[in-house]
Each structure stands twice: as C-alpha cells, then as structure tokens.
Design goal:
This protein has 130 residues and is of the alpha+beta class. It has one helix at residues 2-28, and strands at 38-43, 52-55, 60-65, 68-73, 84-85, 90-91, 98-99, 105-107, 116-121, 125-129. The structure holds FE2/S2 (inorganic) cluster.
Amino acid sequence: MEETDRKRRRLVAALIAAAGAVFFLGRFFRPMSRTAEVRLDVPREPVPADGALVYARSRVALVRDGDRIQALDLSCTHLGCTVTVTPTELVCPCHGSRFDLQGQVLEGPAQRPLKKLTLQETEDRWVVTA
Ligand code: FES
C-alpha cells in the first residue's frame, strides 16, 4: 500500500514537472511572429486612368481598376518569370501566359492568378507588403 502511494506521488510529480517543462519550453520555442515583407515603399504618384505604375525591380505593379488601385506581384505563377504590363493585360514573356488587369488567368500555361499584394496608401507614399 505504501509502495503504491509512493509510486502515485512520483507519477503526479512527474506529470507536474512535464507540464511545467512544456509550459516553460513553449514560451521560448514559439514560432517568431512574421512581419510583412515590404516589397515597395515609394513616393506616391498618380496611377494613370486605365493604366498602371510598374516597379520592375520590385516586381510590383499598381494597377487602376476603376476607382480602385491594387498591387499585383509580377511574378508569373507558372514558373516565376516577370510578367509585363500592357494597357489591356499582363503577359508573361517566357511561355505566353496572359492575365487580366485584376491578375486573373486569361490563358495558360499558368493556372493560378497573380498574387495580390497589400497596398497601403499614406498621404505621400505607396507602401506594398507581401
Ligand atoms: Fe510565365 Fe511560364 S513562367 S508562362
């Protein structure tokens, strides 16, 4: 009987120690919070009516769609080439995929739309994050 109590106490102590260890380690090994990657931070310019501002080095286009402006990642969703912006669509020079100005696929081989990025508009800057 006394041996059973001793084993039970050891088991409870071990469980409490394990719970404490999980709590303690969990505080230190949490995944780091991800901050959004700034892809573009430029002085704000007007986006032409029915047009786009293209920032080739950042592979970002700010595309006007009526009153809305959206930021598109110019990385082709097929194999990653940089798409070019025309007045009516975006075209990939590598294998010919075509996208509309909202980034939706018009013609493959790309299957997925262009990635939309987060656009923040301050008083004097465009800030685009992934
Ligand atoms: Fe754009 Fe292949 S990389 S169509």
